Amino acid sequence: xxxxxxxxxxxxxxxxxxxxxxxxxxxxxxxxxxxxxxxxxxxxxxxxxxxxxxxxxxxxxxxxxxxxxxxxxxxxxxxxxxxxxxxxxxxxxxxxxxxxxxxxxxxxxxxxxxxxxxxxxxxxxxxxxxxxxxxxxxxxxxxxxxxxxxxxxxxxxxxxxxxxxxxxx
Length: 169
Fold this sequence. Notes:
Elements (H helix, E strand, L loop, with lengths): L1 H17 L2 E9 L9 H16 L3 E4 L3 E2 L5 H14 L4 E9 L16 E10 L5 E8 L10 H19 L3
Parallel strand pairs: 1-2, 1-3, 1-4
Antiparallel strand pairs: 4-5, 5-6
């Protein structure tokens, strides 16, 4: 029995050696909702956090940063500082760009058609240097995917691509 417990503890310790400490920050760029966080932004954040947690990583997040003009750079410095204080290895900064204000003026609506694209930049927390980046545009939006499931599926695709860009680090 003691031998089995020792083997289990060694296996768990080995798994932890491969886990990355990742901080996620969502930056919302929606001219129609500059004073509130869109439900789609929150769902994207939660889906990506769930993806990385589910694949064995240690994850944390900063509150969604609502971008107003060029002020998002201040959010980056804060996110890097908070990530360093939390002992994180990487900061993944994900910017959600929404379409024109006429199309995305309801912050509570979770509609895939309101999102234009998602871009991300991966940073090494200790140095603050950008390691990699990527972007994903929304594909064809139809009635079947223009809902919460469509936004969640798109966020899973983004998480998979972010994960691939962090592998080997």
